[in-house]
Design brief:
Length: 271
Amino acid sequence: FILEEYHDLKSYGQGGKINKEALIAANPDVIIMYGEINDSEKESADILEDDTGIPVVMVDGSLEKSPEAYRFLGEKVFNMKERTDILATYAEEALEFAEEIKTTYADKKVKLYYGNGPDSLETTPIGSTHAELFVLIGAVNVCDLELNAKGRVEASHEHIIAWNPDIVLINGEPKGDKKISPKMAVDNFKSDERFQTINAVINDRVYAIPNYPYTWIDRPQSTNRLLGIYWLAYILYDHDSIDVNEEAKTFYELFYHWDLTDEELTLLLGK
């Protein structure tokens, strides 16, 4: 789902593992840090700028700030206002739709569990930026475990049984030796004898999260979450105004310059 011209772009690392020597040699005009803005990240940006001599621009990566982020980058950094206005408008409409859904279904408190990792026990607690989409759309995040600096925590089978979610969203594990697709992770979750009494399994409401080229919910916290708003609204509330197929085609054309085929949609949606 990524155009071939971008396949061989160099990677310089991320977080605390950036190859600064290679970055200096590449001599970019600017470094953009897109994500959470806090004192720790500001310090990291200052260090990176001091070590490389390259200006660092920090951009708020929260979903609610995505329209502003696109307009800022288009007007102040890339001189691509016409293009970024289109993306910002899509983001605004998606966020407005999320607010509409949240208001419409305010009395329908759907309890949701979000599972990450090879065993689906890694999750995002209430208050985590990784669970931002659930708040925007009015879902009830069942994970009430203590929030840590990473924004993700390890739940136990007993936690999930006690929380008894109505819906379970499964991400699988995209990295390392324990790679497992969302579909495989869903099958494992549904067949686990310990989960047979929870509502989501009883009612067959355990879903694989679309994850090409990145997931529609989290990991990373990318633009795909805008499309995730529509998908999640459909999953949670079966909202009859949503055509997920058409919305996906619109999104991938706008953001990836990719014309989705029916076969690719089937792959994305796990049908």
